[in-house]
Structure formats: structure tokens, C-alpha cells
Amino acid sequence: MSETAALHFYWCSQPVPFRAGETIAAALQRAGLSDLGAAVGGLHGRYFCGIGTCQACLVSVNDASPVEACLTLAQEGMRLSPALQPRRVEAGVSS
Ligand code: FES
Known about the structure:
The chain has one helix spanning 24-30; strands spanning 7-11, 14-18, 58-61, 66-68, 79-82, 89-90, 93-94. It is mainly beta. It has one domain (7-85): Ubiquitin-like (UB roll), CATH 3.10.20.740. The chain has a 5-stranded mixed sheet with strand order 2-1-5-3-4, covered by helices on one side. The chain has a two-stranded antiparallel ribbon with strand order 6-7. The longest helix is centred in the first third of the chain and has 7 residues, at 24-30. It is globular. Bound molecules: FE2/S2 (inorganic) cluster (FES).
């Protein structure tokens, strides 16, 4: 990869460019993506304190445990989604 190659991660399958050393939250904000989806208490996730205290910016990375978007450095190819995924209901069975 050349130094001028664009870096991207994916937010809900949408490619989002970022700069080396940039946090996930900073890249999402720069891309105009401020709604981070479903969050605890029926609220929507968002960037708020920027220091890891409020937990409003939790996102799931590669379908794993949530991380604070404001503290986590973006990495090439990571796949991000809202921390709380809608429950799947298939054939009358929820998961
Ligand atoms: S914005 Fe508050 S923890 Fe990330």
C-alpha cells in the first residue's frame, strides 16, 4: 500500500475514509455520520464527551464486543456496526 492510498473502514457496510492515527469517532464525524444507531435505554449512540466517559459512542467492531469510538483508532478494513443490533426474528424464534 502506498502512503497516498486512502484508508477505509466500513460503517454498516458503507466505506468511510480515515487518516492514519484518527479515531473511529473522528472519521465518522468527518463523514457526516453522527447517528451511531441503537444504544442502551432506547437512545441513539452518538459522539458526546470524547474522553471515554459517557459510553454514548459504543460501536461493535467485526461483530465483537463494543468499543468506545472516541478512543479507538480506526484500522484499515474494520467492519463497524451499532453496538446494539436489532434482534433477529426468524420463523417465530428470536435470537
Ligand atoms: S463520546 Fe463519550 S465515551 Fe465516547
